[in-house]
Design goal:
It is built from seven helices and 13 strands. Strands 1, 2, 3, 4, 5, 6, 7, 8, 9, 10, 11, 12 and 13 form a 13-stranded mixed sheet that branches. A hairpin with a 3-residue loop joins strand 2 and strand 3. The two termini are about 35 Å apart.
């Protein structure tokens, strides 16, 4: 058992097989969700002895990676408050398609609402980072680490249509009614490397909106590979999309121990292996992610 106040870290090897529980005590657990699983139910079979086991956060069905489960309503509430306060930090790895700068506007139009009370806006108007999509040319080397820092912070107002089951980007709300239906979404991203046809990104969301990363990256012309819903050219052969919740950091609500847990994709293929190498070798993301540390939801 880790002593109180000591930094506890769990680093799982890439060949961890079917390991699904990365941290567990009597209060909570940090679990690995596979792409295609329901984040609200997949873990039930892992804890058949628990009278109560509920997800604290959600991952979209096609997304893989780490999430937290609580073993009592009280702990679930404490974690929910911590998420709302921005006290739980998450990092994602993403493999993105390269879209030309001209496509960014089309993506933005496709994910803007077709209803009168919302005003569609271009991605450039709402991105605090003025960086255009990558223009890296195809190359013979397997992976190239990005040289000068490419990335920034994205801020959008987004909503979610229950009819289309898609998130959309809209202009900042100007009244209470529209503000109730739109939420501010903030994330920090950095290009860590480039393969022959795809870019490898590390992403830190500062808010937790439905489909947030997927719609925000599509808005700047970088759709997640396999994410047909948000502009990807083709689906993944095995289903899912190339977005992975790689790490989670939080202070344990009962013991007060700081926890940092990491888990690479289970049984990574060549493309994930290249992404892992690029993102793991990128040491400057900590400075980038501090840009909006403490941003209120």
């Amino acid at each position: 058992m880790t002593q109180s106040g000591e930094y506890a870290a769990v680093h799982a090897a890439a060949d961890s097989g079917e390991k699904r529980i990365y941290f567990e005590d009597e209060y909570c657990a940090v679990l690995y969700k596979k792409a295609g699983e329901d984040s609200q139910t997949f873990f039930k079979r892992l804890f058949p002895q628990k009278q109560f086991a509920a997800a604290v956060n959600r991952l979209d069905t096609p997304v893989s990676g780490l999430m937290i489960a609580a073993f009592s309503p009280q702990i679930q509430t404490q974690f929910s408050r911590a998420f709302e306060a921005g006290a739980i930090r998450k990092a994602y790895w993403a493999i993105c398609e390269r879209a030309g700068a001209g496509k960014a506007a089309q993506f933005a139009a496709d994910i803007s609402p077709a209803v009168a009370e919302y005003t569609p806006v271009s991605a450039a108007a709402v991105c605090t980072s003025g960086i255009a999509p990558s223009a890296f040319a195809p190359e013979d080397t397997a992976v190239r680490t990005a040289g000068a820092a490419v990335g920034g912070t994205l801020e959008h107002w987004i909503g979610f249509s229950t009819k289309t089951q898609k998130a959309f980007i809209a202009a900042a709300p100007d009244n209470r009614s529209s503000k109730a239906r739109l939420k501010k979404a903030v994330l920090t991203w950095m290009l860590c490397g480039s393969g022959e046809r795809y870019d490898f990104l590390r992403i830190h969301p500062h808010t937790g909106r439905t489909h947030q990363i997927r719609v925000q990256m599509a808005a700047i012309g970088r759709p997640i590979k396999g994410d047909l819903k948000y502009g990807a050219r083709r689906s993944e052969p095995g289903g899912g999309i190339r977005l992975h919740s790689f790490s989670v950091s939080f202070t344990h609500p009962i013991t007060g121990i700081p926890l940092h847990i990491e888990a690479p994709p289970l049984q990574p293929d060549t493309l994930w292996s290249l992404c892992i190498k690029a993102c793991a070798d990128s040491s400057s993301f900590g400075q980038l992610s501090a840009l909006h540390r403490g941003t209120a939801e």
